[in-house]
Specification:
alpha/beta, about 15% strand, about 120 residues
Length: about 120
């Protein structure tokens, strides 16, 4: 749902309309939605969810996984179309790497938690 919220919000800003789920899904506003690349740090379930949402709407997605994440969880995320970036460290290290790379590349973070400096946003 978070990926949809970001895309629907971008469509609303661009065209001053409220669009429903089907309006985003049907690709009518691809000029607005296709540039979005999503990212998150995860150790499993959240990464699968973001990956599935990005795939559903035809967007690329990068999931940053800490070292301890199982191969099975990584495979489940890849099956949903995401590109996985393994981080040699713990979850907090993965969060920091996600934030840094997203800012560098203009990716939109879909965070599973929020605190100052790490929240869902589109990096400039």
């Amino acid at each position: 749902m978070a990926v949809y919220d970001v895309l629907a919000g971008a469509i609303g800003e661009a065209h001053h309309v409220n669009t429903g789920f089907a309006g985003v899904l049907n690709g009518k506003h691809k000029k607005v939605t296709s540039p979005f690349i999503f990212s998150t740090a995860s150790s499993g379930n959240h990464g699968r969810s973001v990956a599935a949402g990005a795939k559903l709407f035809g967007n690329r997605c990068f999931i940053f996984l800490p070292k301890f994440t199982s191969a099975e969880k990584e495979a489940a995320i890849r099956e949903r179309g995401a590109e996985v970036i393994r981080i040699d460290g713990d979850y907090d290290t993965a969060v920091a790497a996600c934030k840094r790379r997203s800012q560098e590349n203009g990716w939109t973070i879909i965070s599973d938690t929020s605190w100052e400096g790490y929240d869902s946003y589109r990096a400039a």
